[in-house]
Write a structure and sequence with these properties.
Layout (H helix, E strand, L loop, with lengths): L1 H19 L10 H21 L13 H31 L13 H33 L4 H15 L1 H9 L10 H26 L2 H21 L9
Helix pairs in contact: 1-2, 1-4, 1-5, 2-4, 3-8, 4-5, 4-8, 5-7, 6-7, 7-8
Length: 238
């Protein structure tokens, strides 16, 4: 059952990004993605019941919830700051040009705020965390050693993002036909794999899904806001 669920997640992630991608300017940023996220939570609940996972196995124990969320938020903001710094300072030195994410220039401040506050958590963060660090990780830990569960959950998370990674990189200045496109996609998937495994480890250590929900949310939000407010004016690069 757990292997079936993992396969369903990988298929779901890539089909959703393919079918619903045009509904949003930013990844996962539409009502359609939020509805798909709610459907994924419902499906995941059904698998959790079939796998016999209780609240503790899913990381939903309320004890220490606020502290876990605070820890996750701090880690998420720190990670976002590091990622923005890498994209603004390190990446341009390697590729020889600023790395910009085109969709950020196509949204207003209000649209970006709505995405970060509402659509991002409902369409991306909470469904993914419940699915991967809740049900999938909980099921894997009952069948595999912890190290293997971390690797497998991270790999499934990376495969879920295969389509998203290609589209996201293509929306940057490293997109096709840039000679850096293929390498950038590989690096993005490697980061997601390591990030997925790290999130799973953090969820195990804190025993709470609140940690990874807050971390995932604040990292994505901080990255988008950081890139938006440090965007290089187009006229400087003509």
């Amino acid at each position: 059952m757990i292997w079936i669920y993992a396969s369903v997640l990988v298929l779901w992630g890539n089909l959703a990004s393919s079918l619903l991608g045009t509904t949003s300017r930013l990844p996962g940023g539409s009502v359609e993605f939020a509805l798909a996220g709610a459907a994924l939570v419902g499906l995941s609940l059904a698998f959790a019941r079939a796998l016999g996972l209780d609240a503790a196995a899913l990381g939903l124990d309320r004890v220490g919830f606020a502290r876990a969320a605070a820890v996750g938020a701090a880690l998420g903001l720190a990670g976002a700051m590091a990622a923005v710094g890498a994209l603004r300072l390190v990446a341009p030195a390697i590729v020889g040009q600023p790395v910009e994410y085109a969709p950020l220039a196509q949204v207003t401040e209000l649209e970006l705020a709505r995405h970060v506050a509402v659509l991002l958590p409902l369409g991306t963060v909470m469904p993914e965390e419940f699915a991967f660090r809740g049900v999938l990780l909980g099921g894997l830990l009952r069948r595999l050693r912890q190290r293997d569960a971390l690797i497998f959950s991270g790999a499934a998370f990376a495969l879920w993002h295969l389509g998203v990674a290609m589209v996201t990189v293509d929306d940057t200045t490293l997109g096709s036909p840039s000679p850096w496109f293929a390498l950038a996609v590989v690096v993005a998937l490697a980061v997601v794999l390591l990030g997925g495994s790290a999130l799973a480890w953090i969820r195990i250590r804190t025993r709470s899904l609140a940690t990874t929900i807050a971390l995932h949310w604040l990292f994505n939000a901080g990255l988008l806001l950081g890139l938006s407010y440090t965007r290089v004016p187009a006229e400087c690069c003509r």
